[in-house]
């Protein structure tokens, strides 16, 4: 599990600032909510995992504002990603190609400054190789696995996840896809997946009401049954890496290392794409 | 006096991050100090003036690290600015020209993200006009004043202040220049002024041990005598505007509105140059 860095304080306050600007108009209300965000930081920073503090911060901004700040951006991300994936479906898609795309799709993230413009550079992201490349093991694990649990991350990105899930289902795997039940940041929800056509071939079981990454302590009994049964877990994004790395489970992490603390803990450069176990 | 905005939290944590990266190598020590910075924010945000919270933050980083993070950058700023002012001295300098230069010099600031590269754009800053232009009143006040108190802000900038102070002294004014006693951020200290040749024609009396802006409650008795006696106060930079605006004193504020909260409170755009009373 990832420990907080001195850099996480700035990132968390930056995330709260961005969410507030999307969800709240009144300057006084923004200030009052930011005061509460500082309280949350004071309570949990740096003891908890950054993704967990981020969860608390985004839940708080949504509760106080009564709004989902990212609803409209999420829709735009899906539309932009679908434009690309509908074109890709006409090509001959190998496992490696869909895996690389799923990792590139992780560039779409409104939680991290520098990744908010990723929609414009998606094509560029798709050309990028892997700084850590455990594809051979991944391919072997997929070959062996009967039951696969797929933990999704952001909207937009889920269009690329869909290609990978389709590939797995098409090769006879039993796949359960696990998003969030309700909105947090730009994470995909059950409803977001259904809108994209997930659920026709695979099961959807959310692992949390709303959370960045996966906190096993908050997961439902229904989810834990799938978790226990899965031969392979495919975990998308930094949040899952932050909260699950080191867990005694066969987990493939597919992510773009968007921040310096995560990049350092993986021994890669910020911005690198990673497939690791 | 300027009230804190929701944006100030991000800026204050950003300032602490920048100072830590300059002063401290060890990641664990950086994190521990950042934890203390969050404590300071929790204690005073948003009740106190942003410049006052910034003062607490920078004092704390210096105390914990035992270092002045900006020592080397301050020297570089002075050198870069002196290159320009030594060229300017050969020209025919009007009061308006030196005032505009002193305001443009305020662009040099390592406390505000976006102003840290100002050294490269100094020439550009010098071409910029005033979004609030009370020069006519300023000229009249200077004409009337016998005793002028000049509150300096950043290093680098002080080379341009020097041109204005020379002009005032050359026109028979009694000028006292007031920096900080000890380092904070990139603010000029007594020693920085002496190095540049201040003090040959005018008095130097610091107004605080170290502080962003001017907290009258912390000022020395010696300073307060000059303050009370001054017919005109020339206050450089956002910190003085934040801490003094609304004070019952004849104060000319010369500044670049580097952040959105200060720009909004002045009714100008971020980045605008201002001469106001």
Written overview of the protein:
Two copies of one chain form a homodimer. Chain A has 277 residues and is an alpha/beta fold. Chain A folds into two domains: 6-65, Helicase, Ruva Protein, domain 3, CATH 1.10.8; 92-276, Uncharacterised protein PF01937, DUF89, domain 3 (Rossmann fold). Helices cover 51% and strands 10% of the residues of chain A. Chain A contains twelve helices and seven strands. In chain A, strands 1-7-6-5-2-3-4 form a seven-stranded mixed β-sheet, with helices on both faces. In chain A, strand 3, helix 9 and strand 4 (203-204) form a beta-alpha-beta unit. In chain A, helix 1 runs antiparallel to helix 2. The radius of gyration of chain A is 18 Å and the shape is globular. The mean pLDDT of chain A is 95. Chains A and B meet through helix 1 and helix 2 of A and helix 1 and helix 2 of B.
Write the layout of secondary structure elements.
The structure is a homodimer of 277-residue chains.
Chain A: H1 6-23, H2 27-44, H3 50-65, H4 71-88, H5 95-105, H6 122-126, E1 132-133, H7 135-144, E2 147-151, H8 157-170, E3 174-178, H9 190-196, E4 203-204, H10 221-229, E5 232-236, H11 237-244, E6 251-256, H12 260-266, E7 273-276
Parallel strand pairs in A: 1-7, 2-3, 2-5, 3-4, 5-6
Antiparallel strand pairs in A: 6-7
CATH class of the largest domain in chain A: Alpha Beta
Helical residue percent of chain A? Answer: 40-55%
Biggest contact: A-B, 24 and 24 residues
- The structural class of chain A is alpha/beta
Poorly predicted residue ranges of chain A: none
Ends apart, CA distance between termini of chain A: 13 Å
Q: How many discrete domains of chain A? A: 2
Instruction: Provide the CATH topology of the largest domain in chain A.
Output: Rossmann fold
Which percent range describes the beta-strand content of chain A?
5-15%
Describe the global form of chain A: globular
Number of strands of chain A: 7
SSE ordering of chain A: HHHHHHEHEHEHEHEHEHE
How would you classify the quaternary structure?
homodimer
Sheet with the most strands, sense and barrel status of chain A? 7 strands, mixed
CATH architecture classification of the largest domain in chain A? 3-Layer(aba) Sandwich
